[in-house]
Amino acid sequence: MSRSVIITCAVTGSGDTVAKSDKVPVTPERIAGAAVDAGKAGAAICHIHVRDPETGAPSMRKDLYAEVVGRIRESGSDIAINLTTGPGAGFTPSPDDPAVNANPGAFRKPEERTAHVEELLPEVCSLDVATMNFGERAFVNVPRHLEVMARRIRAAGVKPELEVFDAGHLRLARKMVDDGLIDAPPMFQLCLGIPWGAPATPETVAYMRSMLPADAVWSGFGISRRQMPTVAEVVNQGGHVRVGLEDNLYLERGVLATNAQLVEKAAGIVAMLGCNVASTGEAREMLGLRGAR
Predict the structure, then answer these.
(1) CB neighbours of residue 22 within 10 Å
(2) What's the sign of the alpha-carbon dihedral 103, 147, 126, 82?
């Protein structure tokens, strides 16, 4: 029997990718435009970071988020908006004093990390249930901070997307569900292939899928060259998928992609595997979203 598969498009991220591809959107206008185009290509949800329009560096400025959200809503697009709360968890020990963050602005109070969500009221926001080595820095999300963020996200009426990068993160996320911090149905995102998290392999997908709550709506993605193989694997194992320039810059070897092209390619894989690409309305129903405001 055919089923509908939700495609999320992560349109820009916060990685050092701007110099590697001129397709990566930087300004609010281009980020919003990429999200709208992704929706036209088949994405039901857009996952949004913002960047400094002058430098391309990752940013937490609320005015930039507000402009992106406003432009998407004013465009008439029906795509569901998912704002990140990931920035603000970075810790790089100073070479002079390891107790001091070499990039102090990269670590923020949990209330600061959800402030734009509480103000702009997207339908979804990410909640990274992860403390791990993330490339050359630490990504720090302790249980007390996660509880603060989860309570504030719930009070705002926004659906948290529980991003897990390894099996231990999934165990903690399940505890948050069991403790009543996350409303049913819980929404999980398996984030695979990130150094130094779980690898993007079929075995990892199967193992982490086996750990999910019975009522979870789950999605998964792999980065770089594992993006499209992970789309196929996740669909085969019953999940939903994420693609986009946050996770991979290439349509094929040596060919830089746009977000819309990556969504179109993922939609082709979904169809080839006998499934339907979910509309935003279907995604809202599956995830229990309240609808755009």
Answers:
(1) 9
(2) negative
Q: Which of 85, 65, 191 is nearest to 146 (CA)?
A: 85
| Residue whose C-alpha is closest to residue 140's, from 181, 86, 191 | 86
Query: Domain spanning 4-287 has what CATH number?
Result: 3.20.20.70
What are the tens digits of pLDDT across the range 51-87? 999 999 999 999 999 999 999 999 999 999 999 999 9
Asked if 54 and 61 count as a contact pair (C-beta separation under 8 A), the reply is: no
* Strand-strand pairing, 250-252 and 255-256: antiparallel
Which residues 6+ apart lie within 8 Å of 253 measured at CB?
Answer: none
Question: From CA 231, how far away is CA 241, in angstroms rounded?
Answer: 6
> Which residue reads 């080595």 in tokens?
133
> Could you give the 3-state DSSP secondary structure of residue 172?
helix
As a dihedral over the C-alpha atoms of residue 205, residue 209, residue 211, residue 213, rounded to 10 degrees, the angle is 160
The predicted-structure confidence for 228-261, as pLDDT tens digits, reads as follows: 999 999 999 999 999 999 999 999 999 999 999 9
Please choose, from the candidates 101, 95, 172, 96, the residue with its C-alpha nearest in 3D space to the C-alpha of residue 130.
Answer: 172
Express the helix, strand and coil content of the chain in percent, nearest 5 each: 40, 20, 40
Residue-wise pLDDT tens digits, 181-235: 999 999 999 999 999 999 999 999 999 999 999 999 999 999 999 999 999 999 9
C-alpha 293/C-alpha 77 separation (Å) is 13
DSSP-derived secondary structure letter, 224: G
Peptide bond into 218 cis (omega under 30): no
Q: Side-chain half-sphere of 274: how many Cα atoms within 13 Å?
A: 5
Contacts of 144 by beta carbon, 8 Å cutoff, 6+ apart: none
Residue 224 near residue 193, CB atoms below 8 Å? yes
**pTM for this structure?**
0.96
